[in-house]
Amino acid sequence: MISFLKKISDDNSSSGYDNGIQFSDSDLKNEISMLLTSRPLFPGLEDLTYICDSVINYGVNSSLLNIVTQEEQTLEIIRRITIALKRFEPRISDIIVMHKEVNDIKYVFTVNAYILSRPLVFDVFWTKATDNLSLYE
């Protein structure tokens, strides 16, 4: 299966020719990192079926301005990471995002999933002060 970024960069995405495009773990890491650090152009359009799945809405809205409690923030970040991965990374399946660590500066989440029947585990880092998501390395 082709990644979302490769699909939108293809001049003829409806052809079956590129279904066999190979990707490395490094490519996958870079694409997930780009997804996590990108922000949707119109995050308020979550309910519009075709818009929410398009390149216009690519990324994760990491701003939690109106969400006050730590528990609500944690649940909302988990929800947003899960939705973004399901929408824009079709090679990944069985996505489970779990809260791992929290302190005054950051939240860390672990993502467990499968890519082409192979286990995939990585950590995502959310910084409170800047509302930024990134891969936790």
Description:
It is a single chain. Strands 1-2-3-4 form a 4-stranded antiparallel β-sheet, with helices on one face. The protein has one domain (about 25-135): Roll (Nuclear Transport Factor 2, Chain: A), CATH 3.10.450.40. It is built from 4 helices and 4 strands; from the N terminus they run H-H-H-H-E-E-E-E. It is of the alpha+beta class. The model has no long low-confidence stretch (mean pLDDT about 80). Helix content is about 30%, strand content about 25%. The chain starts with a helix and ends with a strand. Pfam families: GPW_gp25. InterPro entries: IraD/Gp25-like (IPR007048). This is GPW/gp25 family protein.
What would you say about this model in short?
The chain is an alpha+beta fold and 137 residues long.
Topology:
Layout: H1 4-8, H2 25-37, H3 49-52, H4 70-88, E1 92-102, E2 106-115, E3 118-127, E4 132-135
Number of domains: 1
Termini separation (Å)? 26 Å
Mean pLDDT: 82
Rough outline: globular
For the CA atoms, what is the radius of gyration?
A: 15 Å
Order of helices and strands: HHHHEEEE
CATH topology: Nuclear Transport Factor 2, Chain: A
Largest sheet: 4 strands, antiparallel
Query: How many DSSP E strands?
Result: 4
List the uncertain runs. Answer: none
Please give the share of residues in helix. Answer: 25-40%
Provide the CATH architecture: Roll
CATH class placement? Alpha Beta
The helix/strand class is: alpha+beta
Order of adjacent strands in the largest pleated sheet = 1-2-3-4
Strand content: 25-35%
Organism: Escherichia coli
Domain IraD/Gp25-like: 27-100
Protein name: GPW/gp25 family protein
InterPro entries: IraD/Gp25-like (IPR007048)
